[in-house]
Amino acid sequence: MEENNISMKEPINDDTSMESNEEVNSIHLVEINAEDLANMKQEIVEQKDKYLRLVAEFDNYKRRTSKERIELMQTAGKEIITSLLEVLDDADRAEKQLKASGELSDSTEGTLLVFNKLRAILQQKGLKSMESIHHEFDVEKHEAITEIDCPEELKGKVIDELEKGFYLNEKLIRFAKVVVGK
Questions:
Q1: What is the C-alpha separation between 6 and 12, in angstroms, rounded?
Q2: 147: buried, middle or exposed (CB in 10 Å: 19+, 13-18, 0-12)?
Q3: What is the pLDDT along the chain (182 residues), one digit of tens a residue?
Q4: C-beta of residue 144 within 8 angstroms of C-beta of residue 178
Q5: Helix axis angle, 78-101 relative to 106-124, nearest 10°?
Q6: Which of 72, 125, 149, 151 has the most crowded Cβ, counting Cβ within 10 A?
Q7: Is 98 helix (H, G, I), strand (E, B) or coil?
Q8: Nearest Cα residue to 77 out of 31, 23, 151, 127
Q9: CA-closest candidate to residue 109, choices 99, 118, 120
């Protein structure tokens, strides 16, 4: 069996190689003057500032996207619910007619149960009707169809509601069409 002989052409750790490394290191230290040191410090400060700004920007991005995601989920069905508002209006009118007729048959009760179920499902999805009658008229929530003469205590208040206003997750999705007292 042959032994592995390591030939040592150059000494690895002798004093001459260490001296040459020290000379190289001292040369680099000598070459860095005060101006270069100031420039390096300035560059470090700039890089640190860039890093802090980037971290802050990323945090803002995360917050903004999570807020947008929550908002998107809350209003995901907005178009469908908005289109169902007309059906809900028809259901309210039909319910008034059924109650006004005074006839409460099984089919009438079944119809009323369906209307109530529709309202309950829409409420679970975040739909809430706006209460307007006898409240102050608010341009931000109401659409005035007409004004009528009324007693002094009702001036500037909503007298009648022709079409209900609705909120979806606390956001106004339909203005209430109202009659205002003048």
A1: 12
A2: middle
A3: 444 444 445 555 555 555 555 555 555 554 678 888 889 999 999 999 999 999 999 999 999 999 999 888 777 788 888 889 999 999 989 888 888 887 777 888 888 899 999 999 999 988 999 998 888 888 899 999 989 888 888 888 889 889 999 998 888 999 999 999 88
A4: yes
A5: 150
A6: 125
A7: helix
A8: 127
A9: 99
**78-181: CATH number:** 2.30.22.10
Residue listed under structure tokens 């007292």 = 181
Of 99, 166, 106, 104, nearest in space to 132 by CA? 166
Q: Specify the residue for token string 């975040």.
A: 126
Cβ–Cβ < 8 Å for 160, 133: yes
Element holding 127 (H helix, E strand): strand 127-129
Q: Which residues contact 111 (CB under 8 A, 6 or more apart)?
A: 94, 98
Q: Is pTM beyond 0.85 here?
A: no
Could you tell me the residue ranges of all domains in the chain? 33-74, 78-181
φ, ψ dihedrals at 52, nearest 5°: -65, -40
Backbone angles phi, psi at 75, to 5 degrees: -110, 20
Chain-centre distance for alpha carbon 28: 55
Q: What is the pLDDT of residue 1?
A: 47
CA angle at residue 17 from 15 to 21, to 5 degrees? 115
pLDDT score for 86: 92
